[in-house]
Amino acid sequence: MTRLDFEEKSQMGLTSDTLALDSVGPTICVGEILVEILATTVGEGFLASQPFVGPFPSGAPAIFIDQCGRVGGNAGMIGAVGDDDFGRVNTARLEQDGVDVSGVSIDPIFPTGSAFVRYRDDGSRDFVFNIATSAASRFGWTPNVAALANRSGHLHIMGSALSMPSAWAVIEKAARAVKARGGSISLDPNLRKELKSTEDTKERFRQLLRMSDLLLPSGDELTGAAGVDGEEAAVARLFELGVREIVLKRGALGVTCFLSDGTTVDSPAFQVEELDPTGAGDCFGGAYVACRRLGMRVEQALTYGCAAGARNVTVRGPMEGAGTLAELDDFIKKTKRIK
Fold it and tell me: What residues in the chain have per-residue pLDDT under 70?
């Protein structure tokens, strides 16, 4: 999008500074839909028998889009589940929270994807994923997917989806469809050590980065995406590549939004007792993107995003704490922020 295109669309009321407004069409997310099975003991890996809880609906793209729907954003999901109870757990939750699941395929052969998770003493996590040999990686550009993408106003992509050839084929077409109708794109690097990064995956990421309006990195993902060291240099490089808004998630240190006009906005984290950190960044992103597309300014959207991420970690399960605007308002009112 050229600067002139952006200014013209702003005058027509089609953008909220960076992102296309919700009225342009739904936010869609493409990628893995999983169930999460969570170990209830803390330790190293899965080499011994241990108790688990679940299944919880999960998958980073599904968590993001569920939170988007929860706060009232127009939302749709593209992916696949198996013809099993794990799949039904996911589609039922998404539908319940206002997400259009017409782009979710039901695979008659392969099971719904899964992720087994265990927390270590230092708070880090070990995962065992079944994505490549599950329904999660078996979807394509169907008539239903095309219909959803062709009426959408925003595409959000998780880096985890780029390792799946089927997802990439859909993302490419969806990105072109969304941009053609004046929509916008956001990208969360969402790097996972368990998901192998090939040269093809890296090239896909670079291609998407140049198409993205909003980048939502966590920690070192900022410099990794830019390919340069240092926060200031990384932000400058990303703006040179065409990104127009960067929201850096800093965990307990809150978030910082960098705008291409040089504006920087900080928002402190909320003080909570963490029970399960999985999905915090995805809930932040879903709330932030939805709020920006609903017309909120950066400061307000950051507050809702921080509240969504913080509220989610207080509940066991990767999207069990996703909140509505009313629930987030109540959380904001009652919860202290870290100074």
Answer: 1-16, 191-197
Rg (CA), the chain: 19
Residue for token pair 């999983």: 34
Q: 26: closest CA among 270, 329, 294?
A: 294
* Residue pair 186/213 in contact by the 8 Å Cβ criterion: yes
For residue 309, give the 3-state DSSP assignment.
helix
Neighbouring C-alpha atoms within 13 Å toward the C-beta of 204 = 24
User: 10 Å Cβ neighbour count for 217?
Assistant: 24
Euclidean distance between CA atoms 130 and 126, whole angstroms: 14
Rounded to two decimals, what is the model's pTM?
Answer: 0.91
The predicted pLDDT at position 191 comes to 61
Omega cis (within 30) before 55: yes
φ and ψ at residue 24, rounded to 5 degrees: -70, -30
* Alpha carbon distance 66, 312 (integer Å): 12
Q: Is 176 helix (H, G, I), strand (E, B) or coil?
A: helix
Do β-strands 113-119 and 125-130 pair in parallel, antiparallel, or remain unpaired?
antiparallel
Q: Which residues pair with 156 in a beta bridge?
A: 29, 186
Q: How many H helices and E strands in the chain?
A: 11, 15
How many residues would you count in the chain?
Answer: 339
Q: Which neighbouring-strand residues pair with 115? A: 36, 129
State which amino acid sits at residue 20.
A
Indicate the residue type of 337: R
Query: In angstroms, what CA-CA distances link 146 with 78, 124, 142, 232, 290?
Result: 10, 38, 6, 39, 22
Q: Determine phi and psi for 100, rounding to 5 degrees.
A: -75, 120
CA 11 to chain centre: 29
**What is the predicted pLDDT for the residue at 275?**
87
